[in-house]
Fold:
Amino acid sequence: MKRTLKGEIPRQAVYRLSVYMRCLMRLKANGLETVSSQALSSAAGVKPTQLRKDLTYFGQFGTRGLGYDVNQLTGMIAEVLGTNTLQPVVLIGVGNLGKALISYRGFEREGFEIVSAFDADTNVVSDCMKWTIPVRSMDELPAIVSKHHVRMAILCVPIEAAQSTVNSLIKTGITGVLNFAPMVLHVPDGVTVNNVNLAIELENLSYFIQEHAPESNEESPPEIENQTTPPV
Structure:
């Protein structure tokens, strides 16, 4: 079914599509062919009304009384998210985090392929020459982006290099950046930046575990005064 976009779609609705996709993939792995909105929304941790509202941004899905065809809905969401074919991605900054992401083999299962990594340090480039994913100098970035029609980049550079690096990425045609640098990047309209800041996420968790920490109702035992044995 051809999808229809209705105005500006809330970012959280797009995020929840990814959650629905993972729930559907688990259902497929378990051999289920159909799923009700109640069951899918429960698996995704949202209300059925929220699920149906999110899907109506992109078209009409499901059959009343029968639910959703798992294979069909999976394919439609993959088309909406642009992951029905492998999306090429470049990674910038091959430090500890960059190396860990390069080593992660789960991206391809999710519809993404890191076609090349880049680093400004020529020593890093030389050290990674034998890696499965090529590591190149930044000078080669425009040619690789053009060759593979790349539109997305993962940014793992130090904070002091983040803004200048993203400026260079935008000049090559990159329009989507997953940013691990702990700073706000300034980009023109038409370029989307998703920030991943682990410290902020931990601070968020810290707030909630304190906010909902159980209060102790147990009274402290009374203090026992030091006593001396009275004379007999």
